Amino acid sequence: MKEWVKPVGDPNRYENPLRFLIKFKLFFGESALTMVLNNKADTAKRYVSAHD
Fold first, then answer.
1. Residue 11 and residue 26: Cα distance in Å, rounded?
2. In angstroms, how far is CA 20 from the centroid of its own chain?
3. Domain ranges of the chain
4. pLDDT at position 4, please?
5. Most distant CA pair in the chain: distance in Å?
6. pLDDT at site 27
7. 1-52, pLDDT tens digit by residue?
8. Each residue of 11-48: b (16+ CB within 10 Å) or e?
9. End-to-end Cα separation, the chain, in angstroms
10. Is 16 left (phi over 0), alpha (psi -120 to 50) or beta?
């Protein structure tokens, strides 16, 4: 999962933000996307600690 979000080594594997958001929405669902956008820092911290 971390590999997909933040690729290591090859900068060409970064995607443009809009395509990333679309893929994120498809992967996690609309509610997760809304939650992240509304509460980025807190959600990100909780997600990282839950998936570390």
1. 23
2. 8
3. 24-52
4. 56
5. 32
6. 78
7. 455 555 555 555 555 677 777 777 787 777 777 777 777 767 667 777 776 5
8. eeeeeeeeeeeeebeeeeeeeebebbeeeeeeeeeebe
9. 10
10. beta
Q: Looking at the chain, how many residues does it have? A: 52
Q: Which two tokens stand for residue 47?
A: 């997600």
Residue 46 φ then ψ, to 5°: -65, -40
pLDDT confidence of residue 20: 77
Cα 41 to Cα 11, 12, 13, 44, 45: the distances in Å are 24, 26, 24, 5, 6
